[in-house]
């Protein structure tokens, strides 16, 4: 259910957001963040929350999913707070 809510927020939140995956988070340079990459900067992140953020269910967080999480207050803005 939360995946649906996150996905529904995609258009509004990503369209108005400049949140991109930072190189500090994306340590392997693939443009995506794994749970282990995110946990370095967000140690409070749980596997369950990660799965909720992963709206396309590919096991990784892309720029759009990151923007949703930041805009909904799930994660701090990496461009501001890291």
| Span between termini | 30 Å
Series of secondary-structure elements, N-terminal to C-terminal: HHHHH
The name of the CATH topology is Recoverin, domain 1
What is the number of domains? 1
CATH class: Mainly Alpha
Beta fraction of the residues?
A: under 5%
Please give the radius of gyration in angstroms. 11 Å
Q: Helical residue percent?
A: 40-55%
Q: Note the main sheet.
A: none
Mean pLDDT: 82
Annotation, overall tally of beta strands = 0
Named at the architecture level, the CATH assignment is: Orthogonal Bundle
The DSSP helix count reads 5
- Uncertain regions: pLDDT < 50 for 5+ in a row? 11-18
Class by alpha and beta content: mainly alpha
GO molecular function: calcium ion binding
Keywords: Signal
Pfam families: EF-hand_5
InterPro entries: EF-hand-dom_pair, EF_Hand_1_Ca_BS, EF_hand_dom
Structure, explained:
There is one protein chain. This protein has helices spanning 2-15, 35-41, 47-53, 63-71, 78-81. It is globular. Helices cover 50% and strands 0% of the residues. The chain has a single domain (2-76), classed as Orthogonal Bundle (Recoverin, domain 1), CATH 1.10.238. The protein has 82 residues and is mainly alpha-helical. Mean pLDDT is 82; it is low at 11-18.
């Amino acid at each position: 259910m939360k995946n649906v809510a996150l996905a529904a927020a995609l258009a509004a939140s990503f369209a108005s957001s400049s949140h991109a995956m930072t190189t500090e988070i994306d340590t392997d340079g693939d443009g995506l963040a794994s749970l282990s990459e995110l946990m370095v900067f967000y140690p409070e992140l749980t596997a369950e929350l990660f799965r909720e953020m992963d709206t396309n269910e590919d096991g990784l967080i892309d720029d759009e999913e990151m923007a949703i999480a930041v805009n909904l207050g799930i994660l701090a803005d990496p461009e501001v707070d890291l």
